[in-house]
Specification:
23% of the residues lie in helices and 32% in strands. It is built from eight helices and 14 strands. Strand 1, helix 2 and strand 2 form a beta-alpha-beta unit.
Length: 310
């Protein structure tokens, strides 16, 4: 009896995990997707995730910059709030993280009111960020801050996008601009309460059952590599599968390559065999999809292949 129950229980657990986390297509994995790879994350990096989203430490592959993985002691008012806030500032002065994420947003666990619970409610931390960090993404969904000198180095290789256009989109909330908004975290499930979390959609989707393309424009530049982050959509029921990457100058195709994308939340990195010295846009043609339709979360274009830590 026991022997027959254990495999059944394991199968049920595995099925439940795959339902919650569609990217576990080959079963349970404990490999971090390092979802902030586009920022050149190193094994020695640490991050502060302000709020109550400790899973983001696992998603980024970075250790906590402070002694706590959640910030209820610094956010919920109590006679000891000041003590715990001072303790956190001391931790940050000691660890000096290059990355801080304000995870207080609608739909996130426990702390979801940016007006009263975000980093702006903690003056000492807000002042530290203003003095030492730059804002990389700023929305009601997530505020990502990177230390000034670290981000200056990232910008030397990352190509600045000047325009984005696409062949179509699912609705007004899933436009092409999301592929360059820096917001890479996707909730497991959005449909339970769209009124709270609809504003936190950070991906581009095509209409159901259709392929299409998206074009990113930039000033004439050398192109050495392209990184693409797939999406799972609002309910985990869609993803792009095969794509064609085209590097162009005007309407002249200088290089093209077809590949299969990794499932969200793992990035797909493509290095050109030989860098293109002068291009002004990159087009991603989606050739096939999984589930109800196609889309992408993020696209980054580099002058040279960035150092990727797996």
């Amino acid at each position: 009896m026991i022997i027959s129950i254990i495999p059944t229980a394991k199968t049920e657990i595995k099925n439940n995990l795959e339902e919650l986390f569609p990217f576990l297509e080959d079963g349970l994995t404990f490999k971090s997707p390092r979802i902030l790879q586009w920022l050149g994350i190193k094994n020695t990096d640490s991050v502060l995730v302000w709020g109550w989203m400790p899973q983001w430490y696992l998603s980024t592959g970075m250790k906590p910059a402070g002694r706590d993985s959640t910030n209820n002691k610094q956010i919920i008012p109590s006679p000891l709030t000041g003590y715990f806030r001072d303790q956190l500032i001391q931790d940050l002065n000691r660890s000096r993280p290059d990355f801080i994420i304000d995870a207080v947003s609608p739909g996130n666990y426990m702390f979801d009111d940016p007006n009263t619970q975000s980093i702006s409610s903690f003056p000492a931390l807000a002042e530290m960020i203003q003095d030492q960090f730059v804002t990389v993404t700023h929305s009601v969904c997530q505020r990502l801050y990177v230390r000034k000198e670290r981000f200056a180095g990232i910008l030397k290789n990352l190509i600045r996008i000047t325009g984005i256009s696409a062949s179509g989109q699912y609705d007004e909330n899933t436009g092409a601009g999301h592929v360059n908004d820096g917001y890479v975290f996707e909730p497991v499930e959005l449909s339970w309460d769209q009124s709270r979390v609809g504003a936190c959609i950070g991906f581009w989707l095509l209409p159901d059952d259709s392929t299409g393309q998206i074009t990113l424009e930039f000033d004439n530049s050398r192109v050495g590599s392209v990184s693409i982050l797939n999406t799972r959509g609002s309910t985990g029921d869609r993803a792009s599968e095969r794509v064609r990457i085209l590097v162009l100058l005007g309407e002249t195709v200088l290089h093209q390559h077809e590949l299969k994308l990794s499932r969200y939340p793992f990035w797909t990195h493509y290095k050109l065999p030989q860098p293109v010295d002068a291009a002004d846009h990159v087009r991603i043609e989606i050739l096939s999809f999984i589930g109800k339709g196609a889309g992408l979360n993020e696209i980054k274009i580099y002058r040279e292949e960035p150092e990727i830590v797996e």
